[in-house]
Amino acid sequence: MLDLKFIRDNTELVKQAVAHKNEKADIDALLEKDKERRELIFKSEELKKQRNENSALVAQYKREKKDASALIETTKDLSRQIKSLDQQINEVQQTVNDILSSIPNIPHASVPLGRDESANVEVSRHGTLPAFDFKPKDHLELGEQLDILDFKRGGKISGSGFPVYKGLGARLERALINYMLDLHIDKHGYTEIYPPFVVNKESMYGTGQLPKMADDMYHMEKDDLYLIPTAEVPVTNLHRNEILDEALLPVKYVAFSACFRREAGSYGKDTRGFQRVHQFNKVEMVNFVHPEGSYEAHETMLGEATEILDALKLPYRVLLLASGDLSFAAAKCYDIETWSSADEKWLEASSVSNFEDFQARRAQIRFKGKEGGKPQYVHTLNGSGLATSRLMVSLLEHYQTAEGAVVIPEVLRPYMGGLEKISG
């Protein structure tokens, strides 16, 4: 959420940000309602001041044995006016809050302007795309032939987009997750969190999923709880409505979770296999940092995510997202894409985002130094480190052999009991 005073002082900048992110928010209506709210508050405060003066005068009259009946009636009338004004203030405040909730974060100055993903900028490319002397199979065919993935039975159990990992496929998935967790914990200094996979409405609002992404969430109406789209939601909300000690910053958490997304807007997109699923696994990094160091932390987090792909020896590229491809809450975001050898295209495996104080304002996450002073909002960042679904596509297709086996990357072999290859 943006600061209301900032919007008043930078109205045109905010309007441009809304346009650059392809969002809709009535900034003029917000400012009109904000003006109305402040005028109502001023009237209410003036009447409260008058009521207090009258109350003191009533007490004085009573001490002096004077008739205070007219004054008492006047005071009661003031109370009725104040009650009416306060009700109006609450109604106007709700309208202000609703419009504020619809305003996206402002893209950072380094973000390229553009309406969609076609304006994204490739920052770097790493590794060499594989050259096979045979026609490579896709991950669906490999998974079926090696009996390690079962999308058909997943569909029978739950519907399309809910994969089943089987045998060595399940172990390979677990190996990826454990390797990534261990790297972030042991080398990068993260504290592991194992969060709930369901959250309340306040948590979804705090990180910016609600109200914007309501149609994309799995909502359990009876309990008014949501299945998480990413561990970012519960982990960021660990410190909702808290004031952190400045000396503890940065706070770095890493969490594995299943992720659930309805993918309401995926009509017409490639939904084969792991390329677009409703449930997938992800290791998520979340940082709470001092505002002065958030963009340095952003670059560090990007390196922590790409280190995994370097270790797996998979080709990848890094994109800087254009304004129109940025998420609602992000100020700046890098996407990390891995290569599908069968389809010969790049697949998103991670997003690394800096939200500045946008989420912190919504979730009221602040910090305070030893010297005291007014608490400040932290900056929050998160990044997939990594999502396993599309990573599994790249791994299976990249490491396949002419015989239809899949070689296991060296860094994962200790997690696979020393196994070097999955064969049929």
Give a quick precis of the structure.
This protein has 424 residues and is of the alpha+beta class.
3D architecture notes:
The structure is a single chain. By secondary structure, the chain is an alpha+beta fold. It has two domains: 4-101, Helix Hairpins, CATH 1.10.287; 117-422, Bira Bifunctional Protein, Domain 2 (BirA Bifunctional Protein, domain 2, 2-Layer Sandwich), CATH 3.30.930. 39% of the residues lie in helices and 21% in strands. The chain has twelve helices and 16 strands. It has helices spanning 4-9, 11-20, 27-63, 69-101, 139-145, 151-157, 168-186, 201-207, 232-236, 294-312, 358-363, 388-398; strands at 121-126, 191-193, 198-200, 219-220, 225-227, 242-245, 251-260, 279-289, 316-320, 332-340, 345-354, 365-369, 372-377, 379-387, 406-407, 421-422. The strands form four sheets. The protein has an eight-stranded mixed beta sheet. Strands 3-5-4 form a three-stranded antiparallel beta sheet. It has a three-stranded mixed beta sheet with strand order 6-12-13. Strand 4 and strand 5 (225-227) form a beta hairpin. Helix 3 packs antiparallel against helix 4. The radius of gyration is 27 Å and the shape is elongated. The mean pLDDT is 95.
